[in-house]
Protein backbone atom coordinates (compact mmCIF):
# COMPACT_ATOMS: atom_id res chain seq x y z
CA UNK A 1 0.00 0.00 0.00
CA UNK A 2 1.38 3.38 -0.95
CA UNK A 3 1.35 6.40 1.31
CA UNK A 4 2.10 10.07 0.89
CA UNK A 5 0.71 12.62 -1.49
CA UNK A 6 -0.22 11.04 -4.82
CA UNK A 7 0.91 12.54 -8.11
CA UNK A 8 -1.82 12.59 -10.71
CA UNK A 9 0.05 13.92 -13.74
CA UNK A 10 1.15 10.59 -15.20
CA UNK A 11 -2.32 9.12 -15.66
CA UNK A 12 -3.69 12.22 -17.36
CA UNK A 13 -0.62 12.60 -19.60
CA UNK A 14 -1.25 9.05 -20.87
CA UNK A 15 -4.86 9.99 -21.71
CA UNK A 16 -3.77 13.17 -23.47
CA UNK A 17 -1.09 11.40 -25.51
CA UNK A 18 -3.40 8.66 -26.73
CA UNK A 19 -6.20 11.10 -27.51
CA UNK A 20 -3.96 13.46 -29.48
CA UNK A 21 -2.53 10.55 -31.44
CA UNK A 22 -6.02 9.29 -32.27
CA UNK A 23 -7.36 12.66 -33.34
CA UNK A 24 -4.57 13.63 -35.73
CA UNK A 25 -5.83 14.27 -39.28
CA UNK A 26 -9.39 13.65 -38.12
CA UNK A 27 -12.35 16.01 -37.92
CA UNK A 28 -13.69 14.91 -34.56
CA UNK A 29 -16.82 17.07 -34.71
CA UNK A 30 -17.95 15.17 -37.80
CA UNK A 31 -18.40 12.18 -35.51
CA UNK A 32 -21.51 13.86 -34.08
CA UNK A 33 -23.21 14.13 -37.47
CA UNK A 34 -26.88 13.07 -37.40
CA UNK A 35 -26.88 13.01 -33.58
CA UNK A 36 -29.24 15.40 -31.79
CA UNK A 37 -28.37 17.51 -28.75
CA UNK A 38 -30.86 15.45 -26.73
CA UNK A 39 -29.02 12.25 -27.66
CA UNK A 40 -25.65 13.79 -26.79
CA UNK A 41 -27.03 14.94 -23.44
CA UNK A 42 -28.31 11.43 -22.76
CA UNK A 43 -24.88 9.94 -23.52
CA UNK A 44 -23.23 12.52 -21.23
CA UNK A 45 -25.62 11.84 -18.32
CA UNK A 46 -25.23 8.07 -18.61
CA UNK A 47 -21.45 8.52 -18.88
CA UNK A 48 -21.31 10.46 -15.62
CA UNK A 49 -23.63 7.99 -13.90
CA UNK A 50 -21.56 5.05 -15.12
CA UNK A 51 -18.39 6.72 -13.84
CA UNK A 52 -19.88 7.17 -10.37
CA UNK A 53 -21.21 3.60 -10.30
CA UNK A 54 -17.83 2.30 -11.50
CA UNK A 55 -16.03 4.29 -8.83
CA UNK A 56 -18.19 2.76 -6.11
CA UNK A 57 -18.46 -0.84 -7.30
CA UNK A 58 -15.35 -1.11 -9.50
CA UNK A 59 -17.30 -1.78 -12.67
CA UNK A 60 -20.21 -0.25 -14.52
CA UNK A 61 -19.00 1.82 -17.47
CA UNK A 62 -18.46 -1.16 -19.75
CA UNK A 63 -21.89 -2.60 -19.00
CA UNK A 64 -23.97 0.59 -18.93
CA UNK A 65 -22.59 2.55 -21.87
CA UNK A 66 -23.38 -0.06 -24.57
CA UNK A 67 -27.05 0.24 -23.64
CA UNK A 68 -27.14 3.87 -24.82
CA UNK A 69 -24.41 3.73 -27.47
CA UNK A 70 -25.61 0.76 -29.55
CA UNK A 71 -28.93 2.39 -30.56
CA UNK A 72 -27.04 5.54 -31.62
CA UNK A 73 -23.91 4.28 -33.37
CA UNK A 74 -24.43 0.53 -33.79
CA UNK A 75 -22.55 -2.30 -32.10
CA UNK A 76 -19.27 -2.25 -34.02
CA UNK A 77 -17.85 1.08 -32.66
CA UNK A 78 -18.85 0.44 -29.05
CA UNK A 79 -15.76 -1.40 -27.78
CA UNK A 80 -13.31 1.11 -29.35
CA UNK A 81 -15.35 4.01 -27.88
CA UNK A 82 -15.32 2.48 -24.41
CA UNK A 83 -11.60 1.63 -24.70
CA UNK A 84 -10.69 5.29 -25.32
CA UNK A 85 -13.07 6.86 -22.81
CA UNK A 86 -11.96 4.32 -20.19
CA UNK A 87 -8.53 5.92 -20.23
CA UNK A 88 -10.09 9.08 -18.79
CA UNK A 89 -12.36 7.19 -16.43
CA UNK A 90 -9.63 4.94 -15.05
CA UNK A 91 -7.13 7.79 -14.80
CA UNK A 92 -9.49 9.76 -12.56
CA UNK A 93 -10.28 6.62 -10.57
CA UNK A 94 -6.60 5.87 -10.01
CA UNK A 95 -5.98 9.50 -9.06
CA UNK A 96 -8.75 9.32 -6.46
CA UNK A 97 -7.79 5.93 -4.98
CA UNK A 98 -4.07 5.69 -5.81
CA UNK A 99 -2.82 5.21 -2.26
CA UNK A 100 -4.80 1.94 -2.07
CA UNK A 101 -3.44 0.42 -5.30
CA UNK A 102 -1.59 -2.92 -5.21
CA UNK A 103 0.92 -2.36 -8.01
CA UNK A 104 2.64 -5.73 -7.48
CA UNK A 105 -0.52 -7.65 -8.33
CA UNK A 106 -1.30 -5.19 -11.10
CA UNK A 107 2.06 -6.08 -12.68
CA UNK A 108 1.25 -9.81 -12.48
CA UNK A 109 -2.04 -9.25 -14.28
CA UNK A 110 -0.51 -7.08 -16.99
CA UNK A 111 2.35 -9.42 -17.82
CA UNK A 112 -0.14 -12.22 -18.53
CA UNK A 113 -3.11 -10.24 -19.86
CA UNK A 114 -1.52 -7.84 -22.37
CA UNK A 115 -0.50 -10.47 -24.99
CA UNK A 116 -3.93 -12.10 -24.99
CA UNK A 117 -5.60 -8.67 -24.93
CA UNK A 118 -3.96 -7.96 -28.29
CA UNK A 119 -5.45 -11.19 -29.67
CA UNK A 120 -8.89 -10.37 -28.30
CA UNK A 121 -8.88 -6.83 -29.70
CA UNK A 122 -7.72 -8.04 -33.11
CA UNK A 123 -10.44 -10.70 -33.14
CA UNK A 124 -13.07 -8.07 -32.38
CA UNK A 125 -12.06 -6.05 -35.46
CA UNK A 126 -12.83 -9.12 -37.60
CA UNK A 127 -16.46 -9.31 -36.45
CA UNK A 128 -19.47 -8.09 -38.40
CA UNK A 129 -21.91 -5.63 -36.83
CA UNK A 130 -24.26 -8.47 -35.86
CA UNK A 131 -21.35 -10.49 -34.50
CA UNK A 132 -20.17 -7.56 -32.39
CA UNK A 133 -23.68 -7.09 -30.96
CA UNK A 134 -23.89 -10.80 -30.16
CA UNK A 135 -20.49 -10.84 -28.39
CA UNK A 136 -21.20 -7.71 -26.34
CA UNK A 137 -24.73 -8.80 -25.41
CA UNK A 138 -23.65 -12.32 -24.43
CA UNK A 139 -20.83 -10.98 -22.26
CA UNK A 140 -23.19 -8.59 -20.49
CA UNK A 141 -25.64 -11.40 -19.72
CA UNK A 142 -22.92 -13.81 -18.56
CA UNK A 143 -21.21 -11.20 -16.36
CA UNK A 144 -24.07 -11.20 -13.83
CA UNK A 145 -24.23 -14.93 -12.95
CA UNK A 146 -20.42 -15.17 -13.19
CA UNK A 147 -19.92 -12.45 -10.59
CA UNK A 148 -22.56 -13.94 -8.29
CA UNK A 149 -21.16 -17.47 -8.67
CA UNK A 150 -17.61 -16.42 -7.82
CA UNK A 151 -18.79 -14.42 -4.81
CA UNK A 152 -20.95 -17.26 -3.52
CA UNK A 153 -18.09 -19.78 -3.72
CA UNK A 154 -15.74 -17.38 -1.90
CA UNK A 155 -13.25 -17.90 -4.72
CA UNK A 156 -9.58 -17.58 -3.55
CA UNK A 157 -6.34 -17.76 -5.55
CA UNK A 158 -2.60 -17.19 -5.09
CA UNK A 159 -0.27 -15.26 -7.39
CA UNK A 160 0.01 -18.21 -9.79
CA UNK A 161 -3.76 -18.48 -10.02
CA UNK A 162 -3.99 -14.74 -10.59
CA UNK A 163 -1.53 -15.04 -13.47
CA UNK A 164 -3.43 -17.92 -15.09
CA UNK A 165 -6.77 -16.19 -14.70
CA UNK A 166 -5.32 -13.03 -16.23
CA UNK A 167 -4.58 -14.89 -19.47
CA UNK A 168 -8.30 -15.53 -19.97
CA UNK A 169 -9.19 -12.04 -18.78
CA UNK A 170 -6.92 -10.57 -21.45
CA UNK A 171 -8.85 -12.27 -24.26
CA UNK A 172 -12.19 -11.11 -22.85
CA UNK A 173 -11.19 -7.52 -22.17
CA UNK A 174 -9.58 -7.19 -25.59
CA UNK A 175 -12.74 -7.99 -27.50
CA UNK A 176 -15.72 -7.26 -25.26
CA UNK A 177 -17.32 -4.56 -23.14
CA UNK A 178 -18.36 -5.33 -19.58
CA UNK A 179 -15.62 -7.88 -18.87
CA UNK A 180 -14.22 -5.79 -16.02
CA UNK A 181 -16.19 -7.95 -13.59
CA UNK A 182 -13.74 -10.78 -14.34
CA UNK A 183 -10.74 -8.70 -13.23
CA UNK A 184 -12.57 -7.57 -10.11
CA UNK A 185 -13.33 -11.17 -9.20
CA UNK A 186 -9.70 -12.18 -9.75
CA UNK A 187 -8.35 -9.34 -7.62
CA UNK A 188 -10.77 -10.02 -4.77
CA UNK A 189 -9.94 -13.72 -4.93
CA UNK A 190 -6.24 -12.82 -4.73
CA UNK A 191 -6.82 -10.95 -1.48
CA UNK A 192 -7.02 -7.35 -2.71
CA UNK A 193 -9.72 -5.70 -0.65
CA UNK A 194 -12.11 -2.77 -0.64
CA UNK A 195 -10.77 0.41 -2.24
CA UNK A 196 -7.64 -1.49 -3.27
CA UNK A 197 -9.69 -3.43 -5.82
CA UNK A 198 -10.96 -0.22 -7.41
CA UNK A 199 -7.47 1.34 -7.54
CA UNK A 200 -5.68 -1.79 -8.81
CA UNK A 201 -8.36 -2.40 -11.42
CA UNK A 202 -7.90 1.18 -12.63
CA UNK A 203 -4.12 0.80 -12.88
CA UNK A 204 -4.45 -2.40 -14.93
CA UNK A 205 -7.21 -0.97 -17.09
CA UNK A 206 -5.16 2.08 -18.10
CA UNK A 207 -2.40 -0.08 -19.60
CA UNK A 208 -4.88 -2.52 -21.16
CA UNK A 209 -6.79 0.43 -22.60
CA UNK A 210 -3.67 1.83 -24.29
CA UNK A 211 -3.01 -1.59 -25.84
CA UNK A 212 -6.59 -1.90 -27.10
CA UNK A 213 -6.61 1.59 -28.58
CA UNK A 214 -3.31 0.87 -30.35
CA UNK A 215 -4.69 -2.34 -31.87
CA UNK A 216 -7.94 -0.65 -32.91
CA UNK A 217 -5.94 2.22 -34.42
CA UNK A 218 -3.77 -0.13 -36.46
CA UNK A 219 -6.90 -1.98 -37.62
CA UNK A 220 -8.45 1.29 -38.76
CA UNK A 221 -11.55 1.20 -36.55
CA UNK A 222 -10.75 4.39 -34.60
CA UNK A 223 -12.93 6.72 -36.67
CA UNK A 224 -13.98 10.32 -36.06
CA UNK A 225 -17.23 9.01 -34.57
CA UNK A 226 -15.37 6.73 -32.15
CA UNK A 227 -13.08 9.52 -30.95
CA UNK A 228 -15.90 12.09 -30.67
CA UNK A 229 -18.09 9.91 -28.46
CA UNK A 230 -15.10 8.69 -26.43
CA UNK A 231 -14.01 12.27 -25.69
CA UNK A 232 -17.55 13.27 -24.72
CA UNK A 233 -17.97 10.36 -22.30
CA UNK A 234 -14.41 10.59 -21.00
CA UNK A 235 -14.62 14.29 -20.17
CA UNK A 236 -17.96 14.10 -18.34
CA UNK A 237 -16.73 11.02 -16.45
CA UNK A 238 -13.63 12.66 -14.96
CA UNK A 239 -15.32 13.97 -11.77
CA UNK A 240 -17.23 10.72 -11.29
CA UNK A 241 -14.46 8.91 -9.40
CA UNK A 242 -14.04 11.74 -6.92
CA UNK A 243 -17.79 11.80 -6.27
CA UNK A 244 -17.72 8.01 -5.90
CA UNK A 245 -15.01 8.20 -3.26
CA UNK A 246 -17.46 10.08 -1.03
CA UNK A 247 -20.02 7.30 -1.41
CA UNK A 248 -17.76 4.25 -0.94
CA UNK A 249 -18.25 4.06 2.83
CA UNK A 250 -21.81 5.41 2.89
CA UNK A 251 -23.77 3.92 0.03
CA UNK A 252 -25.18 0.36 0.34
CA UNK A 253 -23.37 -1.30 -2.56
CA UNK A 254 -25.81 -4.21 -2.78
CA UNK A 255 -28.66 -1.87 -3.72
CA UNK A 256 -27.10 -0.31 -6.80
CA UNK A 257 -25.48 -3.65 -7.66
CA UNK A 258 -28.90 -5.31 -7.87
CA UNK A 259 -30.27 -2.49 -10.02
CA UNK A 260 -27.20 -2.63 -12.25
CA UNK A 261 -27.54 -6.40 -12.65
CA UNK A 262 -31.16 -6.00 -13.79
CA UNK A 263 -30.25 -3.30 -16.32
CA UNK A 264 -27.31 -5.34 -17.62
CA UNK A 265 -29.40 -8.49 -18.11
CA UNK A 266 -32.15 -6.60 -19.90
CA UNK A 267 -29.75 -4.65 -22.10
CA UNK A 268 -27.75 -7.76 -22.98
CA UNK A 269 -30.89 -9.64 -23.94
CA UNK A 270 -32.03 -6.78 -26.20
CA UNK A 271 -28.64 -6.68 -27.96
CA UNK A 272 -28.54 -10.45 -28.51
CA UNK A 273 -32.08 -10.37 -29.91
CA UNK A 274 -31.13 -7.52 -32.24
CA UNK A 275 -28.09 -9.46 -33.46
CA UNK A 276 -30.25 -12.41 -34.46
CA UNK A 277 -32.64 -10.13 -36.35
CA UNK A 278 -29.83 -8.82 -38.59
Structural overview:
By secondary structure, the chain is an all-alpha fold. The chain has one domain (9-277). Helices cover 77% and strands 0% of the residues. The chain is built from twelve helices and no strands. The protein has helices at residues 9-23, 37-57, 61-73, 78-97, 103-125, 129-152, 159-175, 180-189, 195-219, 224-237, 240-247, 253-277. The longest helix is centred in the last third of the chain and has 25 residues, at 195-219. It is globular. The protein starts with 8 loop residues before the first helix and ends with a helix.
Give the biggest sheet: none
Instruction: Please state the average pLDDT score.
Output: 76
Radius of gyration: 17 Å
Number of strands: 0
Spans of at least 5 consecutive residues with low confidence: 1-8
Ends distance: 50 Å
Structural class: mainly alpha
* Count of separate structural domains: 1
Helix content: over 70%
**How much of the residues is beta strand, in percent?**
under 5%
Helix and strand sequence: HHHHHHHHHHHH
Number of helices: 12
Shape category: globular
Give the gist of this structure.
The chain is mostly helical. The chain has helices spanning 9-23, 37-57, 61-73, 78-97, 103-125, 129-152, 159-175, 180-189, 195-219, 224-237, 240-247, 253-277. It has one domain (9-277).
SSE topology sketch:
Layout: H1 9-23, H2 37-57, H3 61-73, H4 78-97, H5 103-125, H6 129-152, H7 159-175, H8 180-189, H9 195-219, H10 224-237, H11 240-247, H12 253-277
Amino acid sequence: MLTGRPRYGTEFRVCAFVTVAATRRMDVLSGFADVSLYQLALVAVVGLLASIVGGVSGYGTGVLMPLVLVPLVGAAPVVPIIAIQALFNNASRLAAFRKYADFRRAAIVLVCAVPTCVLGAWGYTRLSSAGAALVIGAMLILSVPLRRHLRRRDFKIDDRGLALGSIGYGILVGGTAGSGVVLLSLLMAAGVGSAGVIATDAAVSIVVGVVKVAVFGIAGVVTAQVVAFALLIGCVALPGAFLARRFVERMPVHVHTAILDAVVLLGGAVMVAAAFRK
